[in-house]
Here is the input.
Amino acid sequence: MPSPPPATMNRRFFVGAVSRLPTGRTATPPRGPSRSVSSAAIQRKQAFAVGDVDDTIARSMATILSAKVGAPLALGASAPRLETAAGTPLSALADGETLYLDAHGAAPEEAGVPGAAVLFGGLSPEQLATLVLSKGLQATYAGKIYLNGCNTATGAGADTYAFRFQAALALRGVRCIVKGNGGYSQVDGATGHTLVNPPTPVGAQNRTALQDTYRHAGTLKAQVERDMKYVKDNPLAPDFSAKVAAIKQANTDMRTALSTVPGLRAATYLPDKALRPTLPAPVGITHYESANGRYSAVPASVGRSGRTLEQHVQAALASYNSKWKFNPSAASTAAVGVLGGPFASHTARLMAVRWYLRLGPRPPVQLVAVGDQLSAGSSLYGFLKAEYDRWV
Here is the structure.
């Protein structure tokens, strides 16, 4: 299998006011006035930048804090950065509240089509999980973390950055909702909503067309500025009239190019919720990390409690053995011997437990030899049933 192309920094496009035409990542004037949000009318939320805070991140953070969090930045204030935040600010987040993390995503790209992000704000999923915990995120937090950057949900299943981050949190005891962006993204300066460019060949073509248009307009603008300086400094030059005509034509061409930008942008960056998928909070322990650092679903032997069935059976036997027993039944004595012994597989143990608890058929003798079912009123039945319920 050929090695993937090197990860490149995916610059998010931001829609907001600018004073110059950039190349590549473009911030364009908002379509209307910024939305006014009353801090008393919205749920308490938090937003932090992760990694380098360049112009794009600074503007998107300002919009998110105003439109989404309801806490506009003070004039001249810098966007809050999670790595340098004082104390443990995330400890104030309660269930149901959203944490916005805003950063650039870095992902490999092939023919303009991005793959899954490998870094977010320069951090791996595991490093980001460690960071949010170090800043006070509680194990009981059951809200939503939005990884608002390029390609945080691009890819499939366990390959996505969002999944790997959620798995890393689960392994550290935090089970919460995680949301990401399935493609290159930009924040709309008027609404604070995130728009996403689909990670498809068509999406790549549209993004290229938009970027080329901005570059062309930027080239024309630079030409106009050079020619205007020339005619100002050389009013008697023989080509003065030609330069003035060239300025007029370049201005016309630039306006024509920019007039196509709204349509190109609307076709390139979409508001579709499907491009901003949300991963539901895991129930119990639902992921584990293999030796090579990959995440997968937990083995069937691990239940909702996050412990294996064998661990629960041993806990039941420990409770039963610590209890004083008067004339234990032959069925209980035989069951203790079977349940405390080795099993060929998780399936064999599960079938035996369900048989003893009268929840399933007798397992094949080739799988495990069991005796009589337990009486529903017996002590062993009570301990075993309680542990089985915890497992399922």
